[in-house]
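#onboarding

Welcome to the new folks! Below is a worked example of what a typical request in this channel looks like: someone posts a single protein sequence, and someone else replies with the predicted structure as tokens. Don't worry about understanding the tokens yet, we'll cover that in week two.

Example request:
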Amino acid sequence: MKKNRDRIINLPDLLNKKSFFLFGPRATGKSTLIRTQLAPLGAVVIDLLGIRTFREFLSRPEQLEEYVDAQTTAENPIVVIDEIQKIPELLNEVHRLIENRDWRFLLTGSSARSLRSKGVNLLAGRAWTAELFPLTQPELGDANLEKRLRFGTLPAVYDSKYPVEDLDAYVATYLKEEILAEGVARNLGAFSDFLKVAGLTQSKVMNMNKLSQELGISQPTVRSYYQILQDTFLGTLLPPWEYSKKRKSIAHAKFYLFDLGVMHSMTGTNFLDRNSSQYGDAFESYMILEVRAYISYRRIREQLYFWRSTKGDEVDLIVGKKIAFEFKATRKVQKADLDGLKKLAEEGIVSSLLIVSEDKFETIDQGIRRIHWQTFLSQLWSDSLLLGP
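Example response:
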């Protein structure tokens, strides 16, 4: 049963400041947000997924002003254009109406590929950008870690009686509507194979040469496929932290898909064994994705990194130069689990070091704070970890 959940992102608050692009993968809840937060305020909503609406504006984008005026008597209305990437030409009219009539726009999209094409008007700073993510800790309201790691946290999937079927349908819809319909991958079969490999190599350092050989496609094609995932907000790069002085760092990034349930559907995972390395990778990925969502929602201007030296010393996540996290899906932290953080501490750059696990024994060991995953998420979202003193 679908639940009405309070979301962290507040659209009226954003639009009080500026017009916004709101990007995010399909099914993260953009339409629900618009319906619950903006429709009661009298916002004019233009849904470009509607065939009739799409055809009308595709043939005559300049009708935007008269269309909105016919829908509302408000002098400075809020105007929502859902799936703006379908008709990028509308942005010229949006630009003019922001300038001449001081209207506020919310421009949503699940793909930035069309908007990044040459010559598209991106409003020259007149609209800021926000992202919508799957459900986060404060929006979920439970402590069901294994459910999150297996099925992810897309709203419709998390509350579904049939999450596996819904996830499979999601991946099929993505291939059909975002990839095939937009013609961004010439070989859909090769791209489908790539999706499985991208899921299997989640949280691993990217090796373009190995991926190219395994898939039987060129390295430039592999790179273009990863770019497609980023353009459709299904994944993000985690670059290497290269500030270390005492140990040489590797130069290759990692890639994380945006939701663990979608990842498992892409890879054909049927069961997540609590004692497997796959479970540990999922635990790490989930925590990193949660920090990424927090950073975006709080509009914190810090880059996220991972660190690995050429000798294999590694830390899962570093926020700028401020704080480092190691994520371990263990119920009993061992001293060896602290090795990466200890090596990082020797660099003398990052002063706050935490290991996050399922171990309920919380303490400070050699300057490294051991913290249970629930405590970690609670303190993260209460702003005491990254925004605290």
